[in-house]
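Design review, sub-item: ligand-bound model
Attendees: FS, YL, KQ
YL presented the inputs for the beta-D-glucopyranose complex:
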Amino acid sequence: MAEWKIAYDSWKPEEQPLREALCTLGNGNFATRGAAEESSADEKINYPGTYLAGGFNRLVSKVSGKDIENEDLVNWPNWLPLTFRHTGEEGWFELSQVEVTHYRQELDMYQGLLTRQIQFRDSQNRETHITSRRFLSMANPHVAALEWELTPQNWSGEIEVRSALDGRVKNSGVARYRSLASQHLVPLETGQHNDETIFLLTQTTQSHIRMAQVARTRVFVEPPSENYKRETKTGDKAYTEQLLRLSCKKQHPLRIEKVVMLYTSRDFAVSEIKQEACTNVSRLGSFSQLLHEHCRTWRHIWDRCDLEIASNHNAQRILRLHIFHLLQTVSGNTVDLDVGVPARGLHGEAYRGHIFWDELFIFPFLNLRLPELTRELLMYRYRRLPEARYAASQAGYRGAMFPWQSGSNGREESQVIHLNPESGNWLPDNTFLQRHINAAIAYNVWQYYQSTTDLEFLSFYGAEMIFDIAQFWSTIATYNEQKGRFEILHVVGPDEYHTEYPDSEEPGLRNNAYTNVMAAWVIRCALGIAKVLDNTRLEELYEKLHISADDRSRWEDISHKMFVPFIEDGSIIAQFEGYEQLQEFDWEKYKKKHGESMRLDRILESEGDNVNKYKASKQADVIMLFYLFSSEELLALFQSLGYELTEKDISANIDYYENRTSHGSTLSKIVHSWVLARSDRKRSWSNFLEALMSDVSDVQGGTTQEGIHLGAMAGTVDLLQRGYVGLDIRENVLWLNPALPVEVSYIKLQLRYRGHWLTLLLTHQKLLISVDKGFTKKVKIGLKGQVHTLQTGDKKEFEIS
Ligand code: BGC
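KQ shared the predicted structure:
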């Protein structure tokens, strides 16, 4: 069972912010950080944040005399508060006020349960033991519950238990944002529903999302007694509490259950949210009944989504942690909520809960386990097409231009200025020019279709997105007579260190290779889809989107004549045009001082220098191409563009950029590990281990506490399935090209592929495939150039040499 648990065996206040993020519990509807129930937010140790999927609000802040509007994922009222004190004494129990003699915190990922065992001595030498257990129900998306078992070790006496709902919260989880406006909630009402239930109603200031929270608190003493007093305080609209006064006997445990329900104005099937919450909470069973249902739902999820790996370095446990956090952020409960996947989960406030291109790293896992979830998450983009079309037209293009950072309605949410904590300077932020997000969305639609053959989705939603994105690329591309090729100007690639030329006043770069190749791929994809859809639908779409025959002939043209820059016409793809003129960077000097993963942009700016001047990337950029496409596909793509690229060139490009990348984004190591999976398994494995440790060890020094890195988490899992098992869907065949690192003795996983459940067991000698359950259709599996047809019930073993 150890492989299912993350445990901490001592109380270390300085580690608490990181532990809070890593012990966050969520159910795809909302999530709460692993903060202590008895704590309240302070600026250093405790931050009990609760976040709702899609719970955004906008506020205006004054920065350097300018009004800046930001949209944030709101920190909602804290439902956790539970503590006690000895009657007649002032202070409430808090870890900072007692001597902790034993502490163990355990996150059980199989059950989705967070447990703390605390033994402590207070200033009166009273010793007390508390076991606290908590979960956010996967079975009922509105329910959270916690339980305390309090045992006086060497004392008897009367205590007061305090159970509260606290709406006096704001967004202050990220130090960099603290000078900006942060009060997102307006308190509306608090009150008592019945003897054991209190409620709190609140609303966001601008988006007017309402949330009702109710808390039902019960106590159970041994031997049973009803002899306790309860008092409810409701004077404050933002805070309500119940005080329960009762007697404790030495060595007799006292059990407290707090069951909370949370409804919002975004929910379906409700009349009025406060009434709904109050009525439904009284229908709920006990803590243990609710826990039972919750664990059963998690068991069902794990039955589909777990994978096994035999290796060193805790890989099994950490991979489970990654799957766990992904499925707590998006789950079956997310369906119909109209949300995307926030890059930092529902685990903290970094990046304000925005949705980026990170879905590119996340969807491959979901596509092959819970495709219905990917479909739902793609609909988040589809519903925001009108906003993306408007953005394209405002910028002078046709089609749809999706924002780099997306939130509630699909408007561009990237910040216009950002604070460099190293220097204290506010700087312009031009990362919004990452138009490649559009290619990621089209790529995700196509990959979903490849894993599912969901033609209805492609026909009614997916194709529309791909066509509109192709049209955007076609109109942002301009023809350069001199080059005899199309080019894309004023953009930024995935590497956020390069947003302009060092001597330029204007933001943006010319011909970012990744962007250009992806644009050509999207256009080719759009042309290919035309062959898949029925003519009626195709004509409807062409008419609706105003795509003419001339437009399509321009698409054809671009798909063969997109410009890709190379360094001195050699075999190294230039990250962007003019890249070779940048200066080489003194990596040794800076690595010695700042370690491996550095935020060079911030460091150099604080030294009065500029990272734009150097051949120094934040993350994989050109290399992304080798990550997204198999070498067969990529070489063919380059060939169709009229460029010769060989297998050997791919290795040379990987080496070239690996030596010039600082891995300032956790996504970077995933990509670098991936691209080496075949050519250099040792280096690939060491990169994989670094990616694996990104969040558990907080390699970026303080970023994980502000929210986990979901792209990197899901990316490590995907690395096993697509990188090491070598899974690739091409021409209706599921190709497998295994390359197991020596450090791994086997990988076992289950996949949902085109309606079938497949189980794959890969060792260094053999690959065993069983087609467990599924539709009657046959499955084509490709291995070493040969295609095999399997069907339900088949088991096949292949030799691997
Ligand atoms: C990375 C982006 C990523 C974003 C959110 C940034 O640091 O450069 O590629 O999308 O974080 O994870």
